[in-house]
Structures are given as C-alpha cells and as structure tokens.
UniProtKB/TrEMBL annotation:
GO molecular function, one term: arginase activity
Identification of the protein by name: Arginase
Name of the top EC class for this enzyme: hydrolase
InterPro entries: Arginase (IPR014033), Ureohydrolase (IPR006035), Ureohydrolase_dom_sf (IPR023696), Ureohydrolase_Mn_BS (IPR020855)
Pathway: Nitrogen metabolism; urea cycle; L-ornithine and urea from L-arginine: step 1/1
Cofactor descriptive note: Binds 2 manganese ions per subunit.
Catalyzed reactions: L-arginine + H2O = urea + L-ornithine
Family: Belongs to the arginase family.
Coiled coil region boundaries: none
Length: 308
C-alpha cells in the first residue's frame, strides 16, 4: 500500500461551469471527514487549506470561452501548488471545484513525470468525455474542455501550463464511465484516438475487465493519476452534482474500481471534482466520495495476500 504523505489542496471555484455551487465542494468533503478517512489507513495527511483565485464573474462566453482569463489564473496557481507537493514527495489530493481545474493539476503531474522520467497513466472517471473545444460546444463552459486542452486542443492560456504543449498524449489517458458525449465531440474523440470505456462497455464486460484494460501496462515506473468527477457515479447514489446523467456505476462497481486502483500500489495523485453541496441531500454525495477515497487508500473487507 502507498504510504507517501498525502497533501490535500482545496480549490473552491466553479469558474469553468455555468452553474454555481462546486466552489463549496472542498468544505463539504472536509465536513464528511476526508482528512480523518485517509489518516485511518496509516497515511500521514496534511490539509493545506485552499488556494485562491479570481471570483466567478458569472458572465457569458466570449469568443467561445466562458471566463477564460479567470480559468487560466486558477489553473496556473493550482499547477504551482500541486507541483510543489510532488517535488516534496507527497501525494497531492486536489479537492474542487469544477473539472476545468484538472488542467492545472494534470499539467503539474505531467511536468513532474517528464522531469523524473516516469510514465504517466491518467484514469478520467466521469459521465462526460470533457473533450470539447470552442468550435464544437455551444456553452463555452471550460469544465467540458479539460481533456482536449491537456491534449493540446484549446487556447494557449490553457494548453501550455507547465511548459509544454501538448501537456499529455491521448495515449496517456483512459476515459471511464462515459455516457454523455456531444455529437462533434464523438467524432473528435475518434479522430484523436482517445481510449474510452463507456457505460455500454462496462455493461457488456463488467467493471473488473474494464479496469484491467484501463490499467494494462501500468508498472512500477508509472505514475497513476485519478481524476474523479463525482458525476461518474449514478445520480441515485450521488445527486450532489451539477450535471447528472442517469445510468452510471453503482456503489459496488465504483468500489471495485477504487479497490483495483489501490491494488496497483501506483496511485500518485488524485482529483475529486464537481461536488455541488447545494444540490446534495444531507451531504450524502460528499460522504460517498470520502468512502471511495478510503478504498483508494487501503480500505478492504478482508486482508489479502498482496496487501502489505
């Protein structure tokens, strides 16, 4: 089991979305006991509080992007915070906040891997592919664009954070749990060769086989980054998100996903995104997210031979 110190960094903004509320996600996760949950399994954990950035001006899109300058400012600050923790040997856990913030966190992780000569594998757990560009989305919401930006398709303010464009290759990422993709986005994903395990695939082969495929090739030289959008989960069990899509993974499927990631021992960084307490019921979605994080850090029903 990975026993590196864990550094929690809150990013309280919904700057990349049209609906407000995800800015309250970090505090909801703290109230649900995320610090105590990780510490319970022997990991040293520090909560470094929240980074700060521009207020959400709640304006409409300009030239196809909503709040581009503000999104870029938040992500540059976040990149620096995540990179500093990685350089100290910590496992950064970014609690958001909307999913545009993954541009900053993954840019930092990719830079760290380049400088250390490590391979990178990203598991993007989400109901949405987040592979839109300003040309194929009418909303201009940047929380629907982070994967495309990381792969070099987007404005220069976002595609080069961390010093290289593109930040990652499509070969570095696996999208899991996808069930809502715009028409233009479908074609773009296919053209770029992004590997997508949608809900039909999970229905057909099961979560175990899906994770085996998504983790294929991960070895001791691989940094594994997990970016968990809470709308990955079925809204019956996780209503506290701004963009619910029916038909997501069940509680047990999600737990199996986290347990198999934990079994690799390669988890190096983590995002928890898009929790919107304003839409939740008695903080149940935050509590579920913390429950899943426990599984990532060692919770299991039984002691198993491959656990240390």
């Amino acid at each position: 089991m990975n026993m590196r110190p864990v550094s929690i960094i809150g990013v309280p903004t919904d700057i990349g979305a049209s609906a407000i509320g995800a800015r309250m996600g970090p505090e909801a996760l703290r109230v649900a006991g995320i610090v105590e949950a990780i510490a319970r399994y022997g990991c040293p954990v520090s909560d470094w509080g929240n980074v700060t950035g521009p207020l959400n001006p709640q304006r409409g899109p300009v030239d196809g992007f909503r709040h581009l300058d503000e999104v870029a400012a938040w992500n540059r600050t976040l990149h620096d915070a995540i990179f500093a923790e990685l350089e100290k040997g910590s496992l950064p856990l970014m609690v958001g906040g909307d999913h545009c913030l993954a541009i900053g966190s993954i840019s930092a992780v990719a830079r760290h891997c380049r400088e250390r000569g490590h391979k990178l594998r990203i598991l993007w757990l989400d109901a949405h592919a987040d592979f839109n560009t300003s040309a194929i989305t009418p909303s201009g919401n940047i929380h629907g664009m982070p994967v495309a930006c990381l792969c070099g398709h987007g404005p220069a303010e976002l595609t080069g954070i961390g010093g290289r464009t593109p930040v990652i290759s499509p070969a570095d990422i696996r999208l899991i749990g996808i069930r809502s993709v715009d028409e233009g986005e479908k074609r773009f994903l296919l053209e770029q060769g992004v590997e997508v395990f949608d809900m039909r695939y999970i229905d057909e082969v099961g979560m175990r086989r899906t994770l085996e495929m998504a983790l294929d090739g991960v070895d001791e030289d691989t940094h594994l980054h997990v970016s968990l959008d809470v709308d990955f989960l079925d809204p019956e069990i996780a209503p506290g998100v701004g963009t619910t899509v029916r038909g997501g993974p069940t509680y047990r499927e999600a737990q199996l996903c986290m347990e198999m990631i934990a079994d690799t021992g390669r988890l190096g960084s983590l995002d928890i995104m898009e929790l919107n307490p304003a839409l939740d019921h008695r903080n149940m979605t935050a509590e579920l997210a913390v429950d899943l994080v426990e599984s990532l850090f060692g919770k299991s029903t039984l002691l198993r031979l491959y656990q240390s």
